Fold these 4 entries.
Entry 1:
Amino acid sequence: MKRAALLILLCVIPSVCATAYSMPPQIAVEAEAGPMDVSYFYGQLAPYGDWAEVPTYGWVWTPHGVASDWRPYSVGHWVYSDDDGWMWVGDEEWGWATYHYGRWYSDSGRWRWVPRPEWGPAWVSWRTGGGYIGWAPLPPQAVAAEVGLTIAAAALDALLPPRSYCFVEERHFTEERIYTHLVPPTRNVTIVNVTQNITNYTVVQNRYVNRGVPVENVEHVVGHAIPRARVVENTSASHRAVVEGNAVKVFRPQVRPGPVTVNPVDPHASIPKSAPDAERLKLEQKQAKERADLETRHTKEIQNPPKNVPVEQVKARHEEEHRALQQKQTRETEQHAAARQSSPPGKKH
């Protein structure tokens, strides 16, 4: 398969990732003037799902009331903007956040969302070929950079199993009720084998642009020009994206990474501001580096697998190494928490 030049950057700066995304978040109910930190998402999404802290990514969110075969970016439709490229207009109340900020990953059959501060028209991996167009949510390892995002297609494919994708026949790609045209996920493995990854993100005037599928190709298939949408700010009480004529109204507050100090499950369980847990931060940074190093090694092995070793065997070993690392880091975190609890405030342990 020809490798597409993708624009996705793996998180190889662990100290930044750990401090920005893995500390317990602060509840924020209403937007304030100026940039907000990522904690704004926690209060906004709490009515629609559950927050939980996991060793690998910190605080993650799981939506309520979705079908067992639900996947992100499946309930809504695509519009095209000359400025931003392909934009997902989600039908869920919480889609303004989870489809335009952050990343998704599947955990034991449940999709979880990891908050990130950068806004984009959609954060997806694209595949085309054999008369199909498919898209899947970018994994947490795909981190925004100043020039876009960059990694080889094989590495991204290794992180996204076929079941992550939504596929439709090309002629249905711009349908408003695209959910009714999705191919059953049981056919995804077959379709993945006849498609190639064409993910393509760029940065234009400080905006992330999602080109992916060439709009001219879609126009050729459907037999007419694709309307160009203007992206405007949504100032209504509802944050859902709304298409009105040739305009798409979106709610996209400016968000920055920031220190967060309150557990979203128990807002009263604050971390004392007078006694910051420097040892916990050092542990998180060390663990983030371990995860990044493991991802880097796995990516290289997928791109250049050992001779005479089946790719599936390599992937199985990678999964086992991921589980082993997660178990080790969970033990470390629990041991640190126990030591912290047994030590008086201000006493080193």
Note: The longest helix spans residues 311-342.
Entry 2:
Amino acid sequence: MDPLALALVLGSAGLHAGWNLLAKRARGGFVVAWGYALVGTFALAPAGVLALTRADAALSPTAWGFVVVSAVLHIGYFVSLQRAYGLGDLSLVYPLARGTGPVLATIVAVTLLGERPGRLALLGAAAVAVAAFGLAGGAGAGGSPRAFRGGFATGLFIAAYTLWDATAVTRAGVAPLAFAWLSEAVRAALLTPLALTRRDELRRVGREALVPVIGVGVASPLAYLAVLYAFTLAPISVVAPLREVSMLITVVLGAGVLREGNVRRRLASAAAMAVGAALLALSRPA
């Protein structure tokens, strides 16, 4: 695997785990998701505008279609994630979501997009998937059937936007930075009417969750931008599962910061997942 792609994915994993810890602490649905998008739009604006001024970053109608659909998929992702975090532990919901998403993305990348990862990549993807569901198996009091369903639903959105966005930056020729910024801006615009009708929720979020919303709004697009660049350097079927090393970090945060239970089981499963990620890092296309 390309060393720069590996560095981008691992850096993204750290940022991703950190902002999910903040998201767990920010209760809410559409209003919180709107706050994330609004902050992200302003945070990426200088670099995004600069990217759009480049001649090779001009967007065609097809490219705009990719941006709008990506924004819709990310709305579903963030709203589903927030609702799931209201129902279960960080170290339960996060592995379920992140384990479901990349495995589905890898299957589709292989079966429909024609990618042919090597045996180590396939073995690594399988290890990540098994470890993720092992983590979920230690739910105990930290979860419920609704939390499980929320985690799986979030994983479906992850698989969808991973494949869609990777296609946009690799096959439709959309510059990653311009794409990431415009996706944030369109998402903010689409959510604004919904957010403004929820005034009580807006006031509550402003009082109780302003710091988490700002933190997620800045860290989330930066983490995903790193992944978008990684997609231009390595196959989807390798990048998508490898970024799930963030699960190991998140289980540690759930145990150490939030004092969640089932620590041994979840850490053991997360360690197995890390081995799978290492196999992906060492893999070569077939």
Note: The radius of gyration is 18 Å.
Entry 3:
Amino acid sequence: MELSNMVSILKQMFKSLSADEQQSFLDSLKNEPKDIKGFESLKQAVIKHNPNPLPDRCNCPHCQSTHVVKNGNRNGVQRFMCKECNRTFTYSTNTIVYKSSKSIEVWKKYCECFLNKFPLRKCASICGINLHTAFNWRHKILDALQNMQSSITLRGIVETDGTYYALSFKGSHEMPRETHKRGHSVSTRGLSKEMVCVPCMVNHSGFSLAKISSLGKPSLNDLGKVIDNRIEKGSVFVTDSFRGYQKVAKDNDLTHIRILKGK
């Protein structure tokens, strides 16, 4: 969506508010919390759940209990024991660096390679790790990012569109169709069942969500499973002309801006 169009939409919406509502909106902008942006913030969010200094005690990652005591050190790492579930843990339990022998600096370097979309062999060379480790780390980060997405709720102006990828059976020993040579396009034109639909949403604070919904063109139920309760009520929902978005916007109490085809 072009910047001029967004400014025009905001002006129209602002003028429709009462004087008190306009002042309340301007006051809320002054107190708007800063969202995570940039490479460094993303690296910190991926590497550990809490980028602040580590507390003297932490909640149990297994049962979330606060009844925790120290349980000695192992290789210089403080261990804890939960008095509720009797399980032990460290600060890195349930994070991607758990039981990793590499330093945080190596992980940060790898995250930069990951964000720059370097191939695995180049990541391994830059970080001084072997290819198998580079492969495992990539999937640890992908899993962590997916878990982070499950807790994100978008707000403000949210732009939504679907992207499509050819259905791939790479690594599968049982093929439901004839194999395609590398670089071969799908055999059916248009949005057929050979295409994977991934609805994507992003707001102007830089947060985004993307999740596989269906094969081919998504149904209303497919969109609902991805979008429902993931956008804060009252937000501006900007979409293309696909009719399914109208029902989703109504069900989630969103202000819907529909961009007509060809615009």
Note: The helical segments are 3-15, 19-30, 38-47, 104-115, 120-127, 131-149, 220-227, 244-251.
Entry 4:
Amino acid sequence: MELKTYIRILMRKWWIVIPAFLITFTSTMAFTFAQAPTYRATATFVMSPSAAQGDVRAYVDYLDIMSRRTEIANTYTQVAMSNQIRQGVVTALGLSPAQDEKIDVESKQRAGTNVLEVAVEGSDPVLIADYANRIGAATIAYAEKLYEAYPLTPLDLASPPVDPLKPNKPLNLAVGAALGLVLGVALAFLSEYIQAPLEGMLNVGILDEDTGAYNKRYFLQRLGEEMSRAKRNKYPLSLAMMNIDHPGVMRASLSPQFRGEALRKVTVFLKQYLREEDVMARLEGTTFAFLLPDMTEEKAKDIMERLQTRMAWTAFEMEKSGLKLNLSGAAGVAAYTHNGAGQAELLSSASQALQKAEATGYGKVSLYAESEPTDNSQP
């Protein structure tokens, strides 16, 4: 399908897209603002050889050992996250086990450095900053007993964070909006997919098998209904007929399959430029009728001229033969004037206008008012 076909489906199914978007976005917003904020405070420490290690040569040796061996740094990170260090901090802060369960502690060595990072997450920004600094102080004290030659020193102490780590409200709302839009579009196309077979079953008996347009029987039924409505409400109603032909293409001597393929392509092409309430039907042969409710004859003439221009400028490629055809047509338009005329008379008027357009030349549109009446016989 072309892009405009997708757009047309979405516009027709707006009543699915908009509610799905609003429900998803509103749910995301409610969930986001209902979440308790979580903050993150980080303290950093540096591991380095003790400056008291004898001469410069010894200091360099200790520095080389520290750079080539990661066990010392890994040990310090494990110490910072140990239960012993954590329980000491919990006791010092006077926290209950329930309060401590809501606090997460993470310790790691920054890649390519001798910097140890202690990060604490929780709902109280002041508490987690104090918690991180106390974890660091306890780890420094414990490290002095393990590796006296490689002490830890504070680099940046943790401070109470201002902005929460999560929820990330802008990101959540953007994701919610995107998911709502995707869900709405998916439901719209799913509805269209399900509806298509149902409409196909309902359309059995009212479509022309060769072209896919409505058949004459259904068109006459709709014509009567629209004439009655137009007369009752004093609305304009126009009827147009178009004969589609091309030298050497639509002649009776050509195969029915070739003519049928060409007319099917023309039907699909013309339908996309009609309104949803318009009715296009095949009357017979290469003659099509267009029922245009709430449209004056002048406006109907403009529409038919536009359709003929678009059709003349479009090359219809026949899939079986590979040929490309530029088809042309002639059209006649008649308006229903609420004067008590019946279907046969309105059809005859449109047929007379079509005959005059054909006599003038293909690519022309004629109004019934400009034609000389001949008879009231139905085409």
Note: The two ends are 36 Å apart (CA to CA).
